[in-house]
Structures are given as C-alpha cells and as structure tokens.
Amino acid sequence: MSEPEPPAPEPPAPESEACSPLAGSCPGVGSARGRDAAGREALAYLRAAGQEGRRARRRGAATTLYGLLVVTVMLGGPYLLTAADGSWWAGVGGLTRVRDGLAGTLPALWAVAVLLAARHAAWHGPVGVSLPGAGWALPQPLSRRRLLLPRLAAVTGGGVAVGAVAGAVAGFVLGTLPGGSASGGAGAGAWAGATLAGACVAVGVLVERYDRAVLRLGPRLFAPGWAVVGVLLTLAVWAQAGGVPHGVGRVLLWSGPWGWAVQPLLAAAGGQAPVWPVASGALLALLAAVAVWCSHAAPRVPGDALRRRARTLGEVTASLYSLQFRQARRTVLAPHRRAGRARLRLPVPRHPWLLVPWRDATGLLRAPARLAWAATALAVALTASAAAAGGAPPHRVLLSLLALAALYAAAAQLAEPARVDGDDPRRAGTLPYARGTLALWHAVIPAAALLSALALALGAAALTGAGHPGWPVLFLAAPTMVGAALVSAYRGSMPAHVALGVETPFGNTAPFQMAVWYLRGPLAALLLTAPPLLVAAPTGLLAMPWTPGLLGAAVLHLLWAHHTARRGD
C-alpha cells in the first residue's frame, strides 16, 4: 500500500490580492514605519491622480487673474498715477479730519473683515478637501496632517498674497494724504493686508475645529455677530465724520490685533502712531503662535465637517453657475437653521380675501431683519434722491439710479413671501387662487408698506419744509418696483437656450443673456422710472405727462408679474 502524496503547495497570491497597504496586510505595515510608508504611497497616488485637474484649475485661475489684472490696471492705473503726482486730493476739503479719523476707521474695518471670515468659515473654511477626497480619502487610515496641511498652506499663501497686493494699493492711496508717504503707505498697507489674510485663515481654522459647537450655537452666535459688524461699520463712518473722540481711536489702536496691524499704515498716512514697531512686533509674535496652533488644529478638524463643507461648496458652485442665488443662500444657511416657536401672531382675518395679506404680514413680522433691511434701503433711496437735486448731471444720473435701485431693494425685501411661494408652489396649493392671481395678492403688503412710509416722509417734509423734488417720483414709482420684485419672484428656472447663447465675433452672448434674463424685472423698472426722476430732481417740477406714465408702468409690471406666475402653472 503506497503512501498518500502530499498536497501540492498553493500558488502564491498575486501581489495585488496579497498586499493591501491601506488594509495593513503588507509585510511590515502593522508597524508604525510600515503604516507611514503606506500612507505616503497612498497620498502620492492621490496627488498623481489629481495632477491633471490641478493643472487645469491653475490654468483657469491664471487666466482669470490675468484678465482681472489687465482690467484693474486699465481702470485704476490712471487714478494711481494721479495719486502719485499729488493731485489726487486736490480741491478736496477736510483732509485733516479724514486722516485723524483713520485711527477709528482702520481698526473697525480690519475687525469686520475677520468677523466676516468667521461667518464664511461656517460653510467653507480654509481647511478642506475635494468632494471625491471627502468620500474616499477621509475614511482611510491616512495621515490627516499630510492630507490637510498642504491645502491649508496653499490657501494661506494665496490669501496672504492677495491681501498684500490689495493692502499695498489701499496704502499707496492713503499715503498720498498730506503729511504721508506713498511708498511707506504701500509697504504698510501690504503688511496690514497680509496680516489680515493670516488672521482670517486662523479664525476659519478655529471655526472648523469646533464645528460641532458652531452648529449647536450658530443661531445664537450669528445674530450678535451681525450686530457687532453693524456697530463697527457705524463706528468707521462716525470716525470719518469726525464724531469719535481722539481718545477712542487711541484705545482702538492698542485694544488688539485689529489695531496693531494698522498702526504702520496710520503712521505712513501722517497719523499719530509713534510706537508702531512695538505693535507690529506684538502682532508678529501673536501670528507665529497662531500659526503653530493652526498646524496642530487643522488635522483634528472633524471628518463630518469636512464632508459637509465639500458637499456645500459643490452645491453652491452649481447654484451660482446657474444664477440661482437664493438656492445658494439656502444651501449655505441650511445647517445652521433651527425651527423655533412662533411668538408673534396676528389675529386671523374673518374675510377670506384678507388671507394672503395676513400670511404675508405675519411672515414679515416674524422676520424683523427683512423689515430692517427694507427700511435701510428706503432711507438710502430718500437720501440719494435728495442728493441728486443739487449735483452735476453725471452725478445726478448716478444718484438717481442709486435711489431707484435702493427702492427696488426695499420692495424685494418686502416681497419675500412671494419669492417663497414662487420657489415652492406647494405652500400655496391649498389657497383658492391661481398662481397669477396669487402673485397680485402678494403685491398688497409691499405696496402698502412702501407707500405708507413714503407718504409719511412726504408729510414730514411738507410740515418741516425739508422735502426734496424727487420724493414724489419715488412715491409714484413704488408700485412699479413692487411689480418688478414679483416678476423676479416668479421667474422660475432659467431656460437652456439662455445659458447656451449665440457665438458672435465678439464672443458668446450667454453671459449677457443670463444677466438680462435674471435682471429683466428691475432693468425694465429702472428704464421706465429713471427719466421722471432725472427731470424732477433738478427742477422740482413733475411734468403732468410723467404721472400717468408712472402709473402705467406700475400696471404694466403687475400684469407682467401675473403672466409670469401664471406661466408656471
């Protein structure tokens, strides 16, 4: 009886099956050195796979930067040359007040930029990965430091470069003030802009590192943050108006990095900052410490924060390319919204025809920020119209257009309920109105609010004698602006042929067509209401033919809104 033959040895598994660096099955991968080598190999593969895409993005960015540089030099070069020979401020009075006000204005603007960077980091921070990288690389056992720090370094370097250039230009202009130095202002402005960019990056890393706390406390943080921004901007304007005491400016200059960074610029502009080297040294030491902290905090950013920002950035980019700005805004605000209990309740109307105005009024009263923005825009419209009365013809045209644009902005804020119904037709599905009729009902509250506010302004002007000729035109143009806001609220999705455009010897017409399609309502309103305001502003007379023309423009826009909304049925 023969002995059984031993089993044949199994052939060795292919290297691709027997060794998986990311799974840790390669010889030596279980050790720290092996895992580090596998991580470097995987990251090298990722860099090689995305190299072509990075090259394409760099070429696109270089082309865009070149175009912006050419346009900026062509438009701003003559003004900078004028500033260089000292004739920039010729004939301008109050330069001493402007220079003294920089002690309060510059720190406030620097702090505002940092606060806005913190708000921006809530949805798109400096630490980030691409959408494919967020889905594949983050879950792998790769070194977060090697994955995230190169991106952070690139963002920081680009931001510092842009901030230095923009700051140098601003500093050059401020250095041409009497008693200042243009070359010193350019250098000091570059320092202020570069440090501002570094501070914005550091604040962004802080927001991303503690993303869970920001999500939990976001609604409670953003409102006070915007209030602080408003206070700082008011302080900046007040300082330029000469209303801020000299001691307040000195306190701001030494109250923190927002003051330390601008002290060299203030000194170069001829202001009082004798020990600016000390402030610059303190800021440099602080930024060095912050840079070390950022290098340790960036790899610890939660993975869910990076993935959510990658998704949000993709959705926002797609919305912006299709000119869906409201969709982009909703995408940005979605993670930080919380459903709250309604505290303000208007009495339910007894008559069915009051239902839509009641809904609109309730919605606006529960969003006081929109009422505040509408009031601000209306104040800008009244102020610009008053300033246009005594200006030269070019300035009168610009101020009149600004007044009408601000009036449209106020109407657009008050027409927000119509925009909500236009975006989601299901909200108004239970109402006994067709979409065209519903659009006209949405005009009641905005028109009533604007006309009431303008009537109060006209009444106060009649009693005090401080009225201006353009205000009656604004009163008659308000219904037209409401109709234009309703046209924009119900415009729907952009047709494909608008985005395709037509090839011409001067290029494709798609950008022009998209802009006209998006702004067709307010553009038509400006075209019909600007001539009466231009005629009435300098003379104080509103010719009789203009009055029925303005009323006809209002009827035309309301009918246009009715047709636009009905077409979406």
What does this entry look like structurally?
The structure is a single chain. The protein is globular and about 75 Å long. It has helices spanning 15-18, 32-49, 51-84, 95-121, 131-136, 144-175, 182-209, 211-240, 246-254, 257-260, 263-268, 276-297, 303-321, 325-333, 355-365, 368-388, 393-414, 416-423, 435-441, 444-464, 471-489, 496-500, 510-518, 520-539, 546-567, and strands at residues 503-504, 507-508. The chain is mainly alpha-helical and 569 residues long. It has 25 helices and 2 strands. A two-stranded antiparallel ribbon has the order 1-2.
Describe the structure concisely for a colleague:
The protein has 569 residues and is mainly alpha-helical.
Fold topology:
Layout (H helix, E strand, L loop, with lengths): L14 H4 L13 H18 L1 H34 L10 H27 L9 H6 L7 H32 L6 H28 L1 H30 L5 H9 L2 H4 L2 H6 L7 H22 L5 H19 L3 H9 L21 H11 L2 H21 L4 H22 L1 H8 L11 H7 L2 H21 L6 H19 L6 H5 L2 E2 L2 E2 L1 H9 L1 H20 L6 H22 L2
Antiparallel strand pairs: 1-2
Helix pairs in contact: 4-7, 4-8, 4-9, 6-7, 7-12, 13-14, 16-17, 17-20, 17-21, 17-24, 19-25, 20-21, 21-24, 21-25, 24-25
